UniProtKB/TrEMBL annotation:
SUPFAM superfamilies: Carboxypeptidase regulatory domain-like
Record organism: Flagellimonas pacifica
Entry protein name: CarboxypepD_reg-like domain-containing protein
Lineage: Bacteria, Pseudomonadati, Bacteroidota, Flavobacteriia, Flavobacteriales
Superkingdom: Bacteria
UniProt xrefs under InterPro entries: CarboxyPept-like_regulatory (IPR008969)
Length: 274
């Protein structure tokens, strides 16, 4: 009887510990979107980077300093911009439960020390000093003059299109003519045209994927106010703009963001999303 009671008590204690452990894990994994606004006396609060160092996610502020970012308890947020001092913020229990947070930023003033250039054989003239620098040679495929160093690696769809639109020629010496049967058959069947469309779709998909990876989902949905299931359609809408290609290829995230914000307003109006 004592042994049965002991086993019963042991199993009861294990169940209690298991319940506490599961509840602790679920609490630790709870997350929510933190909404806030960055403020400053300088009033330049556009494009300030907000990084969740713990979860390795990030976002940026809009033109008014507003932002959205996913957080958990005890996450560390870092606010940074060239013109402001870096600011760290730990997501406490009080901060986690608040509905809105204001983040004041302090201007960064970079005080440069006096620089003496003469002892290092520098004249102070940048063009003259740069021309005299002895730089190490760049070690790359192009610098080493390796074969096919500048050849771009094509995609699978591009490779299929190349195969469909090329091939061996069959010569008819009696007629003095040559035919590329593979090329003719693929064009007559419509396969070449279909593969060309697939190449274009692949390029559009890569562009959408690149933009999605540049900005978090919370920014795209909450700031641009574009539903996630219509984001691909929104990017296609942006691609109709003549300057989209130059903006997206510029690698300037702030310029791209400003373009997306501007086009999102027009897209929402035309599709009655507001």
């Amino acid at each position: 009887m004592v042994l049965i009671d002991l086993l019963y008590n042991t199993n009861y204690i294990r169940c209690v510990w298991l319940i506490l452990l599961v509840s602790g894990i679920s609490t630790a994994q709870e997350s929510r979107i933190l909404e806030g606004k960055v403020t400053s006396k300088e009033k330049d609060v556009t494009g300030i980077a907000i990084q969740n160092i713990t979860s390795r996610s990030a976002t940026i502020t809009d033109a008014d300093g507003n932002f959205f970012i996913m957080v958990r308890h005890n996450d560390t947020l870092m606010f940074s911009a060239v013109q402001y001092k870096r600011k760290m913020l730990v997501v406490s229990e009080e901060l986690f439960s608040t509905s809105f947070v204001n983040i004041p930023m302090e201007a960064f003033v970079n005080e440069l020390k006096e620089v003496v250039v003469k002892p290092y054989n520098l004249s102070g003239n940048l063009n003259r000093d740069l021309s005299g620098l002895q730089l190490e040679k760049d070690v790359s495929a192009e610098a080493l003059k390796l074969p096919n160093a500048r050849v771009r690696i094509i995609s699978q769809s591009e490779n299929k299109l190349h195969d469909a639109d090329h091939g061996k020629f069959f010569y008819f010496y009696g007629l003095g003519m040559a035919f590329n049967v593979n090329k003719i058959l693929n064009r007559l069947s419509g396969r070449t045209k279909k593969l060309k469309k697939r190449v274009l779709l692949d390029k559009e998909y890569e562009k959408v994927k690149e933009i999605e990876e540049s900005f978090s989902d919370s920014v795209l949905i909450n700031v641009l106010k574009i539903p996630k299931d219509r984001f691909h359609d929104f990017i296609y809408y942006c691609q109709m703009e003549a300057k989209f290609e130059s903006v997206s290829e510029n690698k300037d995230q702030l310029l791209l963001w400003q373009f997306l914000v501007l086009k999102s307003k027009a897209y929402r109006e035309e599709n009655n999303l507001d």
